[in-house]
Amino acid sequence: MSKAGTVKRPFILAIRAVFGGLFLLLGVAGFFAFAAGFADYPVVEPAPDAKPWIRGAYHVHTTRSDGNGTPAKVARAAKAAGLDFVVLTDHNDFKPPAATWVDGVLLIPGVEISTNAGHLTAFGMQRPIEGVTPWGPPEQAVAEVEAAGGTAVLAHPVQTKNPWKDEATAHQVPGFELYSADTFFRQALRSPVSRLLPAVGASLVNPVHGVMLLAVPEPRPTERFLELARERKRIALCGHDAHGVPAYEDIFNALGMELPPDVLSGPLSQNAREAAAQVTQALASGRALCVFRALGAPEGFTLEGFDTTTREAPVGTVLTVRLPEHTPGTLEVRVWGDGRLQPDGQHIELTGPGAVQVEVWAHAPGRFFGHEWRPWLVPSPVRVVPRPPGI
Ligand SMILES: [Zn+2]
Ligand SMILES: [Zn+2]
């Protein structure tokens, strides 16, 4: 064999291996695309005649930082997904434009501040944030958000890339992105074959299903959140961390923050500034729910038995979950922390003191043709306080 032949042969083999690998990946992605055609949403049908909740997106980037859509494009996507509001949180955008109604969608100014301990999102500021330098100390960012009348949130606090690393401020900040689309995506990167590939394949046919396949919660964020929730009232949020890939509309259709109508004093004001105050106060109250919207609308759900302002209840209290009408076997109440789910699956006895996290999970379309349990409705936690003396 000539020398040229010996060089050529490994080269051809390598090319064949690369193409073979690509075809195999395409084939596997094609399989998941095919399976996605059978994914049936929603799991829970909308409740007829229910007073609609107010629906929104939290933690969204635009062309004001590294997102690929203008605020107007984001508003159009939100409208198409049936949302009422979007909280824009561009990176270190300390002077965002004032709240505005665009196409029937309320754009609310917020920010995501880079600190040397991680990322902090914030909303509800009464004035621009001053004196904060990107990548500065976290306590400075937290203090300035508070001074401006805003609510601070630990963004994607438990993940490998940009976790929240400062213990002192973690205890101070009221909000916590319990579920973060960014964290889900980074988890999927660690399991490229079992998690990322099915999601990419499914996205070819059903993009919302593709996003939903990434929503596989790990225990660590919940454990960390509950640890913090024992000390004070905490707000659970789901952060889209939307940048335009996946498309804004698809990620808005997959998850969001939803407000029960009774949380607001009345319908959203036509005055954008007033409407923004209504929404941000409701988000800060902890009464909004993180909802995996593809699985169904939350109308008909309530969690009862605690003080809705303080989100506290004494040890021994029994909380009640009311679920919307659904096919038996498709929903499940799950409980973490200082509470015990009773055998009827809808009452939780508080065993604290501490904190309890109650969520409704749904039997959602899975990667193959079957189903996987996924979070659906995620309220903020309830603090379990000692029983008052003498009772
Ligand atoms: Zn971030
Ligand atoms: Zn972000």
From TrEMBL:
Domain Polymerase/histidinol phosphatase N-terminal: 56-117
Ranges that cross the membrane: 12-38
InterPro entries, sorted: PHP_domain (IPR052018), Pol/His_phosphatase_N (IPR003141), Pol/histidinol_Pase-like (IPR016195)
Keyword terms: Membrane, Transferase, Transmembrane, Transmembrane helix
Origin superkingdom: Bacteria
PANTHER family, alphabetized: EXONUCLEASE, POLYMERASE_HISTIDINOL PHOSPHATASE N-TERMINAL DOMAIN-CONTAINING PROTEIN
NCBIfam families in UniProt: CehA_McbA_metalo
Protein name: Phosphotransferase domain-containing protein
